[in-house]
Structure to design on (66 residues):
């Protein structure tokens, strides 16, 4: 998936977290947002790029994607 698509999906999830009507919707959107941030960080690391200024997965370690 292109990096721009990762970033777009992350931003859309962030907006959904902000506008969610229920806690279940917020949790689901936060999981998507964290997963996208993790995948971006992994891609950048694999390609020898800094993650400075990029989104980070802020979920507790127990909730991260496996």
């Amino acid at each position: 998936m292109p990096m721009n698509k990762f970033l777009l999906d992350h931003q859309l999830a962030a907006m959904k977290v902000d506008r969610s009507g229920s806690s279940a919707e917020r949790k689901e959107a936060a999981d998507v947002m964290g997963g996208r941030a993790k995948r971006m960080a992994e891609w950048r690391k694999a390609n020898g790029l800094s993650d400075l200024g990029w989104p980070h997965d802020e979920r507790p370690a127990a909730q991260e994607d496996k």
About this structure: The chain has a mean pLDDT of 83.
